[in-house]
C-alpha cells in the first residue's frame, strides 16, 4: 500500500512563535515588544504568508516572500521595529518560527516503511518544507515530497496527489492519504481516487466528515487503516 501524508497538523506542528520573536527582537535588535504585540505581529505575518506562499516555489521566490513577510510583520509591530532593516528582520522572523515532529510521527513512519509501504508527503507548503522535514528528522523516512508551491497547484486539486503517486511509481487504487483537513485533504483525496484518513488531534473536526472516512486521533491510528 502507498501512504500519502499531509505535513502541518499531520506530521509536524508549529510552535507558538510570539515568545521567541520577542526574545530575538530584544537580543538582536534592541527592540522590546510585549506578548500581545508580538502575537498581533505574527498573526498579520501568518495571514499574509498563507495568502502568498504559492509564490515560493523556488529559493529565489522564498527569499522574496520572506522579505515581504518581514515588511508585513514590521508594519504590525510598534514603531521601533519598523527601523530594523528588512533583510535582518526577515532572518529574525525565520528563526522565530520553529516546527517539530509530532511525538508519534517518526515511529509510525518507520513502522509503515518496515511493512513495505511507500510514503510521500503531499502538502500545501512552499519549497522550505524540504528543510523542515530535514530539521525534524522526517526526510529520510519518506520517499517523495510534493509541495503546492513547487507544483503550482494546491490541494484539494487532485494533481498534487497524482504527482506523488507518479513519483512513487504507483496508482491511486489501494493508496490512502492522511491529513487533518476535510476541505483540502479529504476532498482532494477523493478527487484523486485515493482513500482519505482524517487526523483529528483536538477531537471532533470543525467540518462535517463525509460518510465512510476513517477518523483517527493521531498517526498511530494510521497503522490500522493501512493494513
What can you tell me about this protein's structure?
With 227 residues, this protein is α/β, with parallel strands linked by helices. It folds into 2 domains: 2-13 and 100-225, 3-Layer(aba) Sandwich (Rossmann fold), CATH 3.40.50.1000; 18-97. It has helices at residues 18-29, 35-52, 59-76, 86-96, 105-114, 129-135, 148-151, 159-168, 182-192, 222-225; strands at residues 2-5, 12-14, 99-101, 118-123, 144-147, 176-179, 195-199, 214-216. The chain has a 6-stranded parallel sheet with strand order 5-4-1-6-7-8, with helices on both faces. The protein has a two-stranded antiparallel ribbon with strand order 2-3. Helix 9 (182-192) links the parallel strand 6 and strand 7 (195-199). Helix 2 packs antiparallel against helix 3 and helix 3 (59-76) packs across helix 4. The longest helix is centred in the first third of the chain and has 18 residues, at 35-52. It is elongated and about 55 Å long. The mean pLDDT is 96. Its EC number is 3.1.3.18. This is Phosphoglycolate phosphatase. Keywords: Hydrolase. GO terms for molecular function: phosphoglycolate phosphatase activity.
Report the total helices.
Answer: 10
Number of strands: 8
Largest sheet: 6 strands, parallel
- Identify the CATH architecture of the largest domain: 3-Layer(aba) Sandwich
Can you say what the CATH homologous superfamily of the largest domain is? HAD superfamily/HAD-like
Q: What tags apply to this protein structure?
A:
227 residues; 2 domains; six-stranded parallel β-sheet; two-stranded antiparallel ribbon
